[in-house]
Amino acid sequence: MKVKQSKQELLRHLHDHLMFLKSSSESFDNGHVGEAKRLAVTIRVLFHDTKNSKSLLGQLKMKDGTGYLDTSFNLDIKNTVSHLGLVGTKATPGNASYYAFLSRKVPGQLNKYVFFPKWWNKSVLKDNNKNSFTRRDIILALANTDGGAHVDPKLDSAYAELTRNNSVGISFKKDDQYHSVKDVELHTVRQITYEVVTSIERIINKMPSIKFELRHL
């Protein structure tokens, strides 16, 4: 026999998971980019539905019919080179790295709210092998197979090429040698997290009863 969790208990979980996202984001921003694995697991809990488990936001009826912030650049399917939809690159002497845009307004970004299915399943990254990745692809790969909640002995080949072999093809030159810019998937998750936190807080502010209950947990 199983006992259904109350709305109050679900809201406590929501409060906790928002705190998880914020604390892991702060740690990520302080240089611990591996925190993206924890961010991916938390986002999976919030959004991912299966036959055997239901997303937290789905149980709270806060997932469908509400808008989620899309800060990406649209993918041009005619573009034959790699596409970075949620992150930029920055160079320093002898090095280069990705960075999440967060609240920065970059020309060309959409910065609009869209319904969950469109947001979750939109391609936000493409490599030079013509493999494209949605938010769902990146979150679930990191959470389910690449160190978030599980470490699988084998990875999807396209994801492995992206994360291990620099299939986006972005590099920098140091001492007459080219070096790959690493962790595009981790910085992409950081930007997805910014979208998630911003979106959920917006939803809460539009639901006075939920806002009141969260304040009085």
Supply database-style keywords.
single chain, 217 residues, alpha+beta, 3-stranded antiparallel sheet, two-stranded antiparallel sheet, 9 strands, 43% helix, globular
Describe this structure in words.
- The chain is of the alpha+beta class and 217 residues long.
- Helix content is 43%, strand content 17%.
- It is built from eight helices and nine strands.
- The chain has helices at 7-29, 35-47, 56-59, 116-120, 135-144, 157-164, 184-205, 208-215; strands at 67-70, 83-84, 87-92, 95-100, 112-115, 123-126, 132-134, 171-174, 177-180.
- The protein has a three-stranded antiparallel β-sheet with strand order 2-6-7. A two-stranded antiparallel ribbon has the order 1-5. A two-stranded antiparallel ribbon has the order 3-4.
- Strand 6 and strand 7 form a beta hairpin.
- The chain is globular and about 60 Å long.
- The model has no long low-confidence stretch (mean pLDDT 93).
Return Rg in Å: 18 Å
Oligomer: single chain
Runs with pLDDT <50, length 5+?
A: none
Tell me the number of structural domains.
1
Which word captures the global form? globular
The averaged pLDDT comes out at 93
Kindly state the percentage of residues in helix. Answer: 40-55%
Tally of helical segments: 8
Strand fraction band?
15-25%
Report the span from N to C terminus: 28 Å
Alpha-beta content class: alpha+beta
Strand order of the largest sheet: 2-6-7
Please summarize what this structure is:
With about 220 residues, this protein is an alpha+beta fold. It contains eight helices and nine strands.
